[in-house]
Specification:
- By secondary structure, this protein is an all-alpha fold.
- It contains 3 helices and no strands.
- The chain has helices spanning 2-37, 40-68, 74-88.
């Protein structure tokens, strides 16, 4: 019982002290994160990484396609084909209504 009281008292003390400085510190962290995300160097690096990721994914897709070949069931092949056609027509949503990024 003594350990429970000590634990509860520690949690209560931590909560009170944390809430006093919490909002101010949260605002500082938010401001810093916004400044970093708006930095042109960070944006360029993120875009470069995203572009490289898309390129590697495309290469991996072609390698897997060549190795798998005709071993994929027709139902899967048709589903992939229909998704490609839909995405190439400008629609960026999947069956669940989320966007593909």
């Amino acid at each position: 019982m003594r350990y429970r009281l000590t634990f509860v008292a520690g949690v209560a003390l931590g909560y009170v002290l944390g809430t006093r400085a919490g909002r101010e510190r949260y605002e500082q962290l938010k401001k810093s994160a916004r400044q970093v995300s708006q930095n042109p160097a960070v944006r360029n690096t993120a875009e470069t990484a995203a572009q490289q990721g898309r390129e590697f994914a495309g290469k991996a897709y072609h390698v897997v396609s060549e190795k798998v070949g005709d071993h994929v069931p027709d139902s899967v092949t048709e589903r992939v084909r229909s998704l490609r056609e839909r995405n190439s027509n400008g629609s960026r949503e999947d069956d669940w209504g989320t966007t593909n990024t």
